[in-house]
Design a protein that fits this description.
This protein is α+β, with helices and mostly antiparallel strands and about 210 residues long. It folds into two domains: about 5-70, Orthogonal Bundle (Arc Repressor Mutant, subunit A), CATH 1.10.10; about 80-205, Ribbon (Umud Fragment, subunit A), CATH 2.10.109. It has four helices and ten strands. The strands form two sheets. The protein has an eight-stranded mixed sheet. A two-stranded antiparallel ribbon has the order 1-2. Helix 1 crosses helix 3 (about 40-50) and helix 2 (about 30-35) crosses helix 3. The radius of gyration is 20 Å and the shape is elongated. The protein starts with 5 loop residues before the first helix and ends with a strand.
Length: about 210
């Protein structure tokens, strides 16, 4: 790898720190604002320099996703990463309105931690509320959801009577309901509809 200028080093560190703390890469405009550049062209020039000098690789097909090199370069046995779209918030409390469609960010997680096949299109949601705290899911966590059929006892992202929530799926007497993992919240029984959007597999928590 070729040596970087001081500003390129700062940008590389910002990319690394932002991804570690937020779970997704900063946008071009966020980099522009962070360093006070007058235009996004300056940002793109620095990103191209980082790529040309071997310190990062942009992932094809994604506008704001990168693979950063270690100080020794990209190791031959590097752990493969999965790109997970972040689709907004999900209520872990009382059900809330459905979020607008479209990803608002992108997470990169190694597939061993994710615990799923690379061919299944998982997605991520930010947790709002404390109804699942006794299951170790806290307000502000990001939950990774696998869109597969759920079974008894799974923690699921669900659409109940038109509103979204994160709860544990329970079957009792042939009837499904959603159970909170916090005694302050009641179980939820659908009036007309219960649609399971996927099973929560793992969480990402900011430090």
């Amino acid at each position: 790898m070729k040596a970087l200028t001081s500003r390129q080093t700062e940008i590389l560190q910002f990319l690394r720190t932002h991804h570690t703390s937020a779970g997704y890469w900063p946008s071009i405009r966020e980099i522009q604002q962070q360093f006070g550049f007058k235009s996004t062209n300056a940002v793109m020039g620095h990103l191209r320099a980082l790529e040309n000098k071997g310190h990062m690789t942009r992932i094809p097909g994604h506008a704001r996703a990168y693979q950063l090199a270690s100080e020794e370069g990209f190791p031959p046995g590097a752990i493969p990463l999965a790109d997970i779209p972040l689709y907004g918030n999900i209520a872990a409390g009382y059900p809330d309105g459905v979020e607008t469609a479209g990803a608002i960010g992108l997470l990169q997680i190694d597939r061993d931690t994710l615990g799923r096949s690379r061919n299944r299109p998982a997605f991520a949601l930010r947790v709002r509320g404390d109804s699942m705290m006794d299951a170790g899911i806290l307000d502000g966590d990001t939950v990774i959801v696998d869109p597969v059929p759920a079974k008894q006892g799974d923690i699921v992202a669900a659409l109940i009577d038109g509103e979204t929530t994160l709860k544990r799926l329970i079957t009792q007497g042939g009837r499904f309901h959603l159970k909170a993992e916090n005694k302050s919240y009641p179980s939820l029984f659908p009036v007309t509809e219960l649609l399971i959007q996927g099973v929560a597999r793992s969480i990402v928590r900011p430090l």
